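hey so u asked for the seq, here:
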Amino acid sequence: SRVSAPGDDHEAQFGEFPWMVAVLRKEKHDGIDLSVYTCGGSLIHPQVVLTAAHCMADVGKEYKARVGEWDVQTKAEIYPHQDRNVTTIIVHPEYKRNPLLYDLALLILDSPVTIMGNVDVVCLPDKNQLVDNNLSCVSGGWGTKGKFYNLLQKVELPIVDTESCQTRLHTSLGTQYQLHESFLCAGGDPGKDRCRTDFGSPLVCQFPEKKDKYFQAGILSWALACSESSVPAMYSSLVKAVDWIDKIMIDNNFSTSVYKN
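ran it, structure tokens below
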């Protein structure tokens, strides 16, 4: 409900995407502990983050989730960001790396984050939610056009129907390529595609019947190019995955009501 009016692109307002998560990989260089930005993600429960499975491919690495981040260059913000260690990574059972399929993972945190002005959970769709080009959608992240930005960025993205998306993909991948049902397409307008640096980031769309409320429709999985391309980016469809998410949440004693609209 905090997302600004569609068309107001570029820099997000503080707290505009309270569900946005920065997934950080722990590294050590010359005895100094570092946190390296790996991917985006979304907060679906105070103790659970949703991201792309391929982002967590570095076996043996340790990760943490940062919520409430906005300007990465300063801590002088209205509310502070919060860091939590990732204790468990649960990858979708049908995930495949090549070609990418069911590119989803749930990250269990060591303790719940505190819901506040810049931190909140995102709504998820039910399995019957229609996601089509009549919806108004937007995505956020710290990288666009191949650059890394200090301030959280946002961009309005149109949903592209499967037939049109596949036609555009054929230009680059050949006419034999078939888009898997686990994906949905968005973007493809000049200057409005998410870039590779934002894998794992959520695509959120307005509920048709609730114009002031948003749900997460997808997770950025892969793209052929950045904003210079007319080819849409591929998002793992949450409509196709919400039953699995529900099951994992229940199996781990987490409530699903927090992300139900």
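The radius of gyration is 17 Å. The chain is about 10% helix and 40% strand.
lmk if thats what u needed
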